[in-house]
Amino acid sequence: MKFVAPIYPFYHRPTRRIRRGGELGLVLAFLSSVAVAASEDNGRGAKAIALGNAFVAIADNPWAVAYNPAGLTQLTTLQGSVFFVPRQFDLPELKTASLAIAVPFTFASYGLSVEQFGFELYRETSLTVAAGRTIDGGVSAGVSLNLQRISIERYGSTQCLTVDVGLLASALEDLSFGFAVKNIGAAKIGSKGERLPQILLMGARSSPLPDFQLTLEMEKDTRYPFTVKAGVEQRFFDILALRLGAASNPDKFSGGFGIRFSYFEFSYAGYSHAQLGWTHQLEISFQPSE
């Protein structure tokens, strides 16, 4: 979840004066365009993105730390993933590199992710630690702590801590429901106290056929209307997975695939934004045999 709002109100005063007003205007204009792109909640993980980010009721890989930490309880072996966005909206400055790891223990399952977004003038660095535990009757709960630092060259930096919570319930073997709240504590950022987004996610996942699943999700950001997201996945012999997804507000269409070989899976996802164009995502994940 990106936290960028108006940029300069919450940063420290410039450490070095920019002499020409024209240079300052160009810098602020460019950074504002970065903020618009950064505020697009594009998610993490090729599988989730290819499914239109309808992942709160699935959350079956290490990226559960970003969508629904309760999903960590579904993982029975150590798993890891490296995720890379080389050019968001075809802009080389808007690149993302992320790493996520999930480790199950007897008492609970734990997850960790680190991420860096941006370039030398504007950069976001984040660290997330999460834990999930089975409660009873097929119901699991989880919590994520997110520490994010945002820095702009010549304008200083700021940081914030947010808390996400999630629930995952299995009604039947082929039906599950997910629920998550991002930034449940209504945290703010910077000296001006810019309010960070609060987001509610509710979804369902169904597997009416073997190796096939579909998911439907609703998202409510307190600042915007409801977003509806949906995705489908078909697996073939546990080697190839094909995925499609769509979302509204703004309208997005996505797709991708995963190819598994031994303990590793290579995944690709792409999505099309009506105004900003196409974005590619790549992922390599590690999952030992159970």
Structural key phrases:
290 residues, Porin, disordered N terminus, mainly beta, 3 helices, 16 strands
How would you characterize this protein structure?
The protein has 290 residues and is mostly beta strands. The protein has one domain (15-286): Porin. It has helices at 21-38, 46-50, 64-67; strands at residues 79-85, 96-104, 109-118, 122-136, 139-152, 156-172, 175-182, 188-189, 194-195, 199-209, 212-221, 227-236, 240-247, 252-261, 264-273, 277-286. The strands form two sheets. Strands 1-2-3-4-5-6-7-10-11-12-13-14-15-16 form a 14-stranded antiparallel barrel. A two-stranded antiparallel ribbon has the order 8-9. Strand 14 (252-261) and strand 15 form a beta hairpin. Residues 1-39 have low confidence and may be disordered.
Outline the secondary-structure elements.
Layout: H1 21-38, H2 46-50, H3 64-67, E1 79-85, E2 96-104, E3 109-118, E4 122-136, E5 139-152, E6 156-172, E7 175-182, E8 188-189, E9 194-195, E10 199-209, E11 212-221, E12 227-236, E13 240-247, E14 252-261, E15 264-273, E16 277-286
Antiparallel strand pairs: 1-2, 1-16, 2-3, 3-4, 4-5, 5-6, 6-7, 7-10, 8-9, 10-11, 11-12, 12-13, 13-14, 14-15, 15-16
Rg result: 19 Å
Mean pLDDT level = 86
Count of separate structural domains: 1
- Strand percentage lies at over 45%
User: What separation lies between the terminal Cα atoms?
Assistant: 31 Å
Q: In terms of per-residue confidence, which ranges show pLDDT below 50 for 5 or more consecutive residues? A: 1-39
CATH C-level class: Mainly Beta
Fraction of residues in helix: under 10%
Q: What is CATH's topology name?
A: Porin
- Quickly count the helices: 3
Structural class: mainly beta
Which architecture per CATH? Beta Barrel
Sketch the major β-sheet. Answer: 14 strands, antiparallel, barrel
Topology order in helix (H) and strand (E) letters: HHHEEEEEEEEEEEEEEEE
- Going by CATH, the homologous superfamily would be Outer membrane protein transport protein (OMPP1/FadL/TodX)
Number of strands: 16
Shape, principal axes of CA atoms: globular
